[in-house]
Records
---
Amino acid sequence: MKILGIETSCDETGVCIIETENDSVGSKIKILGNQLYSQIAIHAQYGGVYPMMAKREHALNLTPQLEKCLEEAGMKKDSRFMIRDSRKERIKEILARENDLSEDLIELIEKIEKPDIDAIAVTNGPGLEPALWVGICFAKALSEAWNIPIIPVNHMEGHVVVAMLQRECGILNSECKETNIQHPTFNIQSPNYPVIALLISGGHTQLVLSKENQKYEIIGSTRDDAIGEAFDKVARILGLPYPGGPQISKLAEKDRLEHPHDSASGPRKSAFPLPRPMIHSHDLNFSFSGIKTAVLYTVQKITLNSSSQKDESGEHFSEKNVLAKLTDSIKQEIAREFEDAVVEVIIKKTQQAVEQYGAQTIIIGGGVSANKKIRSDFAKLAEDIHVELMIPEFSASTDNAFMIAVAGYLNILSGKKPETDFKANGNLSL
């Protein structure tokens, strides 16, 4: 079976084609083609993702990404396939709100043979609805042109299932050293149930209980900011560029290398202590808005103290000089304390969930799962409490069409039927 995956939930335009060896859970999955266009450089100048701008970029890039993916998969074969006028009008109608996407897609379809694809898997939520709609309409237009069924996929399920994949090179949940492999093959590893999945991204922080394959129950979630959102907001407070998560982690890691906490005199305490929100709440929910505010107050206190001082000429520091007092070393220590705090909370809550439900496996998914400290601390937790840990490769941690194609495949295996009349749902739940 060959499946085309399409992902446009936020600011990544992803197109992927996979081939499965056997139609069973233990089957092998080969990536035939995988293309991902990131809009980070575009949104970075605004400090965050603008939904309508993301929508426009998806419309501009979906057809070129599909063409590259087909070429990579060896499926781009020249032809003079002419679409009937009635079908062409239907495609234009489907893509009426997507700028020039219909013209670009029709031009591509009419110059290549219909590819050997059995199904299309597309993200229909959660995410930014304007962005989701582009991918959905693109999938429906392809379905109309090529008569291929569509499977709508929950984006968060994609983050769960991609953690269950193991490269054939034998390295579980890490980057394969054989990076020159053109079409890598993966095995789907069935976890030991019950499973606790921690889903952490820019828009989500959830603890999910799964007692059997593809059955999910949300048992904990954030009451305000998602963890990735908190990372980005703290980065802005510290004057770091977007996206903020990797910037915070980079500074925190540098501070740990330069100033190890443990020494002969005992653990080193941070000069800028931050709270561990809801760590003793006795439930499985999270809150990250308060710690963001605590960072803001810490920075304000530092700058206010600086502004009350005088420079060598006897003049009060200007605003520019005040901000300059937020030195690199101070930023490093605040970043480290912030990262330590939020990781301590998610570790504690996840362990609590494992003990409460007798889980045998922990799955970590979502873009924030690429964080090095989260990976190392959860590896230690899993070892300490004797549970299995499944976490995706770094390259598959962030939004991508590979995970959508795999989730679509597993949905087909579980008996899910193709759909035509489905919509984008920005708040879609597992």
Note: The longest strand covers residues 28-38.
---
Amino acid sequence: MGGVRTGLGRRARRIAVIVGLTVVLGARPAAAEDSFLSNAGVGLGTALVNVLYIPAKLTYATVGGLIGGLAWVLTLGDTDTAMGVWEPTMGGSYVVTPDMLRGKEPIEFSGTTTYQEEVVEEVSEEYEIREYDARPPGE
């Protein structure tokens, strides 16, 4: 009643165990010299992370590009509004590198919003706070 069994199930389990052991053994903190296993583990981990990360980032950037374009059209060509959407969604890292997994570089899913920070600084410098004398006029 069990049906026909092939070696494919056993072979898939062996491959999964080998991949799992490579990731587990290679993901420990690096010693003074990088060993082959640690490099292989980080490389394999990078590839596996990118399988999910790249499509998610591309989807996020595409949707952000479309929404930013729609915001530009609805605001009659106000580029500041569109850039407020485009910079965070279309900026950032599109691929995870081994140095990112090792913690040497940051993983930036969203881009920076330097444009917004510059606008805030410009507005705050534009206004000057003045102190006035509280005495009524004529005294």
Note: The CA atoms of residues 16 and 139 lie 89 Å apart.
---
Amino acid sequence: MVSPSVMSWARRRRGVAVDKLANRLNVKPDAVLAWESGERLPTFRQAEGFAEALHIPFGYLYLLEPPLETMPLADFRSSPGHSGRGPSPDLLDLLNDVLGKQQWFREYRLSEGVEELPFVGSFNTTDPEKEVAANIREVIGVDRARQLDGNWEAFMRILIRNAEGCGIMVMRSGVVGNNNHRPLDVEEFRGFSISDDIAPLVFINVRDFRSAQIFTLAHELAHIWTVEGGVCNPNYGLNFGQRDSDVEQFCNRVAAETLVPGDDFRSRWDPDSEKVDTNLRVLSRHYRVSTMVILRQAYDQEFLSAATYRGLFSGLVARVGQRQRLGEGGGNFHLTLTARNGESFTGAVVSSAAGGTLLSSEAADLLGVKVKSLAGVAEHLFGSPLTLA
């Protein structure tokens, strides 16, 4: 006896037309309308298909009333396209999935005797941005990473590896879970963070420009350092229809200072107005970041007017072309899986399964894979297959 009001809510929640849903379930549109009005009931198999098509737990259909969905994290978003709108079902489902993994990893780290991480909440948003950025650079080894050979993409990979080594979970994905049919909307959010003193987390939406994702990483680290975690959509393009909160503006400035220290930057920037393009190119290579990051710091340091910044930003976007997803693995299943779940989390789940504290079925559910895939994941991470419980 499924709930008609829940069925109606589930369809409207996803914004799916009656005709489209009926076609997916191989029934007539009148049947869907009859289910939603309570005139008829679906068969058990039809109810299962209904829940699967609309991405809701099957048990929801037996609730008396639709569930009240709330944002589980602070919401710092201010995108003009989403003004006044609540979080999408995809974002809510993603948040609940990631929060569940973060809580598991937190318990795992506590069982391993890990102590509180000293950098989480070590500053607040009234502290000087330079001091916050300097501490972030020191903890995750930004300056050391910059000295290594490689471009900004290699630099970002090193920073992510360093952050994970410091105890910060870093997840990168462009879909909900492992469902490639549920892409994340970069106009809705670019990233989010969880400020936890045992298992802090950064999530990066890889539907964003690849060159902008390193700024999102630094931006979310600033949130962790100030215990102001939440869902973010940093304003890269200086769209003046968008009003970033004071917290977001602070984290933007810290992010720019973290990646491109202002004092050093000012000594290297050529003030000749005819050499802006040269500055962007040369300093991008020097700091191992994208020209978007250099452009942002040039604006923050008042070398560029807002109008000049926006014009140059538009040109960069045009050259980049349509948004590209960061190589979650470039088609490599294991690299993609590790990026989506984070290397530290993936390794902890596989190790727990090998140690017998976690069933293989439970490990597979946490990672979103089939049980038979676990051995290959273990070999990818540790160089040899492990015996799994």
Note: Residues 89-111 form the longest helix (23 residues).
